[in-house]
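User: For my dataset I need records formatted as: sequence, then structure tokens, nothing else. Please produce one.
Assistant:
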Amino acid sequence: MTGPLALTAGEPAGIGGEITLKAWLARERARLRPFFTLDDPARLARLAEKLGLAVPIAAIARPADAAARFAAALPVLPLAFPAPVMPGRLDAKNAPAVIAAIEAAVRLVAAHEAAALVTNPIQKETLYEAGFAYPGHTEYLGALAQGARPVMMLVSPELRVVPVTIHVALREALAALDTSGIAAVGRIAADALRRDFGIAKPRLAVAGLNPHAGEGGAMGREEIDMIAPAVRLLCADGIDAFGPLAPDTMFHAAARRRYDAALCMYHDQALIPLKTLDFERGVNVTLGLPFIRTSPDHGTATDIAGKGVASEASLIAALQLAAEMSERRQAVRG
């Protein structure tokens, strides 16, 4: 897929604008593919001046203009925020613009005007005040993709993890687990590892749910009755899947060398090890969509917004990974 990357503004009161400016400054060092952001050009110019960042801003009329402007200025597809933006001060009046940026970026990617979608972090509580009906970015993108099953993968240089259940309370996550669902997520993960990560024969390590993977049924039967059958289904499909494994022993360095991704049963089981190993370079990837989407693996960090201390490392990693995935898909399509 050719074309620039589309980067959404995210929560304007958070660090999205700052890390976008810093990512553009690192464009040559990080060898970034041209990208444009859907944001307010005037607010980004003010933010750059406040932070002392020498980032010229270039408003563009269409994504195709981004490549020609990228070397000398940050291309911005204009987006208006209804209320004044103050770093660290959330305002639900701006939530519709945040949502509109996501929708516009998805349309551009679907129309092949942009190669991939990269999203800056959103503040879900603020969006809920404006009537946002989805638990998070991942579920909303699935709805925009007309019912696709979105699957979250977290990627870092040290580890890839895929939670079967995502943004639900732990009690609800446990109730939602079943054999067919685990197997379905495993299939999507394996397909993505082949297509987007260039791994011809991906290996999936499947985590247990209970301590010590249930200890042979002494600490719960979910491994016996639900997870092991899912592993057998994946193996029957020709996927190199193994488990269920004791979750507390599958993330150390030697264990990680045995697999390409860990299939985990719930959100924190997957995200805690990844963020512990490499918080700054983690990338959130949404699998199962008809387009590529990546995002920094951190929140809006409103407590440090506007102070000039936010790290752009995760956003740079997200931009790099989106470009790599796009290039792999383009190579397959010829």
